[in-house]
Predict the 3D structure of the following.
Amino acid sequence: MSSKRAEITIITRSEPVDVNTTITIDSTDSNAIVSGFVTSTFVELSQNFSPEGSKTEEGVSEGLVTLYNDTNAAQPLVATTRLLTPDDILFRLKNRVTVPANGSIETEVYADVAGQGGDIGPSKFTIPGLREEKQKVVYAESISSMSGGVRTIGILNQDDVTKAEKILLDALKTKGMELLKELDADSVILSDIVQYTFENDTELGVETDLFTLSGKATVVGVFYNGEELSVYAEDMLGKQVVDNSETLQSVESQPTVVISDYDLEDNTADLVITRTGLVDLDPNSREIQKLMFFGKTEDEVRRYVMSIDHVQGVEMHFRPMWNRSVPHVASHVSITVRQVE
């Protein structure tokens, strides 16, 4: 009898549990579960947007070049003077210039032919109108790209306006929240748009690169004591534990809180609180103390353990091999609780 041993491993799995409850924030209620107050603020914003719906048309590529003169005499060049890239793309001077002797000057140029072909990157240019020998000492370079060969024209449509309104509505809510925070920086604040209007300065279907959307909104702010609310939510969650054999662990550090309703005339608001946790078998539960297993056979242990809430399985090892029951000596019995995900 003194050689009998029993090792029992109880496998448990946590089960999710949550609580949803509604409280009212009312500054005039001295018996409120959570203290706080409700107010509102008015905000206005204007923002520029570019339409996404667009069409393209050919334009004339333009840019800047630097003209160099490595001779001892100034070099005059008339407007429309040709400048040629190594790839034979032709540009012309927009204005008459004089390149100083042993010096340089920056000036504007444009592509000889309209279209995307003129949208080139930085390049070197020769001046075909000069003598071949002089082309080596009077030349041009650009350090930035030419652009304008393809011009995009925005056509304002309803999708552009709808997307802009969504962006501006978020901005109005953010600005309202910033103003509300100035009233009480210590409380937790929830905000929501009560009502809003938009005004667009451009008609639908009009070609434009830019349109301005203006918005006005009333933003409601619900202020509440965050510590009081957390304690209340934790208490409500704790009530989901049905008996002392269970242990509760919160999944999130803070409860989820949203505004479900508000009354600006009475300055009250309803908040929906959600708190989530995990319930598991308490390793110190009386149900799995050693004395509950004394004298039980392997089959009896299995049926008993599997009847306990949150248990997923049981593993047993009896010694010596001929032993088929749990000894009545506590020091000869080992009970382990193993949690699985």
Remarks:
- The radius of gyration is 40 Å.
- The mean pLDDT is 91.
- The domain at 56-152 is CATH 2.40.30 (Elongation Factor Tu (Ef-tu); domain 3).
